[in-house]
Write a structure and sequence with these properties.
Layout lengths: L1 H20 L3 H27 L3 H18 L18 H4 L1 H21 L6 H20 L4
Length: 146
């Protein structure tokens, strides 16, 4: 059983390394920065749409943010800790499981938000709980102050 697990892990590492080899460090760092920026811009748009009660228009943006958070799980390989004006702190790599769990939670919460806004009495409160709190949690622990 141990041998099988070792083979699976080794295969996963090899595939991951090949994936990253296809992208330069610069492309990876710039790619993750672009996704975080897109998420922030979409989050601001969501706030405006929800304030205007345009709930259905906000939902595709929530899905896009969720998808980006899932993609971001693959955008923090070991060789991208520095350079190209990254604002990622070493704590990402030191606490990789915690960081990945937060990215997954943020993704899941965006999908929950898309469902919750249909019946929420306080759109602002549910948005704060399921969207902005994840942004704050990540920034406070894993992003350099700017």
């Amino acid at each position: 059983m141990f041998k099988i697990k070792t083979i699976v892990v080794a295969t996963f590492i090899l595939i991951s390394q090949q994936l990253y080899a296809a992208q330069s460090v610069e492309e990876i760092i710039k790619g993750r920065k672009a996704m975080f920026s897109e998420n922030y811009q979409n989050a601001k748009k969501i706030s405006i749409l929800l304030k205007s009660k345009k709930i259905e228009e906000a939902k595709p943006l929530m899905k896009k943010i969720s998808d980006n958070y899932k993609k971001l799980l693959d955008y923090f390989p070991e060789n991208t800790k520095e350079g190209f004006k990254t604002e990622a702190l070493p704590s990402i790599w030191e606490n990789k499981d915690e960081f990945n769990a937060l990215m997954q939670k943020a993704s899941d919460d965006m999908l929950k938000l898309a469902k919750a806004i249909d019946t929420a009495d306080d759109l602002r409160a549910v948005q704060k709980e399921l969207m902005w709190s994840n942004c704050s949690a990540c920034h406070s622990r894993f992003r350099a102050p700017h």
